[in-house]
Write a structure and sequence with these properties.
Length: about 170
């Protein structure tokens, strides 16, 4: 037996206009920057190198209730005759006095940039590329992180003012 074929026809009918659909308004929250940049003052002190110098510097600052926010220390000569400490502290004047009292040969301060960024792969690449693409030379940087979610990077550039502007506009 052969199956009967069904013929399907469609009718065109006039329909009343449908009310306009409600359009949802999407409010985008501003995306938090991947980093923040601010200026800071860095103090650099030079000493005759000796065993226990780091402990002596740390003790002198602690005695004055000066908090070290970031820093480096190293022996600056092949013969290890001089040691250099570069620190960002919460009280520059107290730190200078404390370092003078323990025999710093030379103390200088300078402006630097502190950048707080996510503690993840590529964070330093992003900020250093922004700076390089703006034609600014980075003289030096140092950074630290731990198991936390953020890292701190200290930068000295050829134009710190322009660098801050570039980073804040990114």
């Amino acid at each position: 037996m052969a199956k009967a074929e069904k013929k399907v026809t469609t009718k065109k009918t006039k329909t009343a206009a449908k009310p306009a659909a409600k359009v949802a308004t999407v409010t985008k929250k501003p995306i938090a920057p991947a980093f923040t940049a601010k200026t800071a003052k860095e103090i650099t002190a030079t000493f005759k190198d000796s065993v226990g110098l780091t402990a002596k510097v740390a003790a002198a600052l602690a005695a004055e209730n000066v908090n070290i926010l970031a820093g480096t220390g190293y022996s600056a000569s092949d013969f290890r005759r001089k040691a250099v400490f570069t620190l960002i502290v919460d009280d520059l004047a107290k730190a200078e006095k404390a370092l003078e009292r323990i025999g710093a040969d030379d103390i200088q301060d300078s402006s630097v940039i502190m950048v707080e960024m996510a503690n993840k792969v590529g964070a330093l690449k992003k900020i250093s590329k922004l700076i390089a693409d703006s034609g600014i030379n980075i003289y030096y940087f140092y950074s630290t992180t731990s198991s936390g979610k953020t890292a701190t990077c200290v930068l000295k550039t050829a134009d710190d003012k322009k660098t801050i502007k570039v980073l804040r506009e990114a």
